[in-house]
Specification:
This protein has 315 residues and is mainly alpha-helical.
Length: 315
């Protein structure tokens, strides 16, 4: 066994079944018995296809990237945890400084909420923003930016119980919104806000996350995504017709011009795709790309060193 600048030479022992299988595949491909180069190429291609399928099942892409190297470490830790004996000590949680910081911030927020709403501290501005709608306007965008990209990339590793809990939470929020409109719950702030207001509230975080995070998630557009987008499109067309033609006041569409629609739909997408990337490159001098390239190079070199050490070890 040895190594080269491009790859490595690996010697393995094939069992009878593997040898017979390789021979049959070579026959199907029309590789002659006296053509060892073509047979070697077939074995390499078969190995590559197997690796690509195995990595694809784990949510990784081919050829491997720096993120895939990190994901392999994450999968290995998860599998090691699953195989660990029952009496093994639990995996350490968050470091003490993180817990202390989180506790301090939580206590400070509680004090501010009590002071702002209970003691009427005017400098907090909480008294004038005392509805759920106000807090949604404040928190929805950062929550979406922090959580949705993780969901897009790692949802396949999420447990069924956690998925079910998230689904229940979303359904409960839908019921809560419905109750806020049906009953005069002033503290929700829902009554008086039309469909247009909800679209204004939701489209910005959804478009920013979808446009920037989806290409990096490695996900394919599947039939259910197309069906879901089609249903949303049909519902939007129906509400537009009802809002402008039938006078459905709850949509809030009447009075909004084409310019308003362009601002609502194209503004966030244009900002995230056309404005933000050039500004980031201008301010950073593409330092993020250079850092990513250097990180990938170092990770690749380390992985290749480990791979060569594995195949060159005595057997």
């Amino acid at each position: 066994m040895g190594g080269s600048t491009e790859g490595a030479i690996v010697t393995i022992e094939l069992g009878e079944e593997e040898l017979l299988g390789a021979h049959l595949v070579a026959k199907m491909e029309g590789i002659a018995h006296d053509d060892p180069g073509a047979f070697d190429g077939l074995l390499r291609a078969t190995l590559r296809h197997g690796l690509e399928a195995r990595m694809g099942a784990a949510g990784m892409r081919w050829p491997p990237t720096a993120d895939d190297l990190e994901l392999a470490d994450t999968v290995a830790r998860e599998m090691a945890t699953e195989r660990a004996p029952a009496d093994e000590p639990p995996t350490p949680g968050l470091p003490q400084w993180a817990l202390l910081t989180a506790g301090t911030l939580t206590a400070a927020l509680i004090v501010l909420l009590i002071g702002g709403y209970g003691l009427k501290w005017s400098w907090t501005g909480f008294a004038g923003n005392n509805q759920v709608w106000d807090w949604m306007q404040l928190l929805l965008l950062p929550i979406a930016l922090a959580t949705f990209p993780l969901w897009l990339r790692f949802s396949s590793y999420m447990s069924t119980a956690r998925r079910r809990s998230i689904g229940i939470a979303v359904a409960a929020f839908g019921v809560f919104v419905l109750v806020g409109y049906v009953n005069p719950l002033r503290w929700t702030g829902f009554r008086g806000h039309s469909l247009w207001d909800w679209m204004t509230l939701l489209i910005l975080p959804v478009s920013i996350v979808a446009v920037r995070a989806w290409p990096q998630s490695g996900r394919d557009v599947r039939r259910r995504h197309i069906v879901g987008a089609a249903l949303v499109g049909v519902a939007l067309i129906v509400t537009i017709i009802g809002g402008y033609g039938a006078g459905w006041s709850w949509t809030g569409f009447k009075g909004n011009t084409l310019w308003d629609w362009l601002t609502l739909a194209l503004g966030p997408v244009a900002v995230t795709t056309l404005l933000v990337p050039p500004l980031v490159r201008l301010m950073t001098g593409r330092v993020d790309e250079r850092a990513e390239h250097d990180r990938f190079r170092k990770a690749r070199e380390g992985a290749l060193h480990d791979a060569r050490a594995r195949i060159e070890s005595p057997r």
